[in-house]
Amino acid sequence: MKHCLIFLVCFFVGVLAQENFKDAFSALTPEQGAKCLTASGVDMKEIESIKDKMENPSENLLCFAKCMAEEAKYINPDGTVNHEELKKISSYNPCMANIERISSCSDIQAFEKCTS
């Protein structure tokens, strides 16, 4: 129960607090979010401090964001970007069409650059 509560706080206060990505992760389950929390090792304080932009994010936070994008099917298992899924979110920007692959956690910053 505690693990689920931590995820819900993270999910709603952190990722969904970013106005640009409000609908992007709304379909994810608590299990998917918990998986990303565990896999990334991100610190709760860092997630809670996210505002509209990720300024100087840690590697753990970038890995958390990449994992969430993978879980939401915006990134395919081979690292290629699933543009058909991305086009379904309200924050989709044509700039995202130029992003072909997300291989490393730091590559996820390309999405943030498109929404700035």
* Distance between the ends: 37 Å
The CATH architecture assignment turns out to be: Orthogonal Bundle
What's the helix-strand series? HHHHHH
Largest sheet: none
Q: Rg, please?
A: 13 Å
Proportion of helical residues: 40-55%
Low-confidence spans: 1-17
CATH fold-level name: Recoverin, domain 1
CATH class: Mainly Alpha
Number of domains: 1
Average pLDDT for all residues: 77
Helix-strand category:
mainly alpha
Outline type: globular
- Count of DSSP helices? 6
Number of strands: 0
Signal peptide: 1-17
Pfam families: PBP_GOBP
InterPro entries: PBP/GOBP, PBP_GOBP_sf
Keywords: Signal
Polypeptide structure, described:
By secondary structure, the protein is mostly helical. It has a single domain (2-115), classed as Recoverin, domain 1 (Orthogonal Bundle). It contains 6 helices and no strands. Helix 1 crosses helix 2 (30-40) and helix 2 (30-40) runs antiparallel to helix 4 (59-71). The termini are far apart. Mean pLDDT is 77; it is low at 1-17.
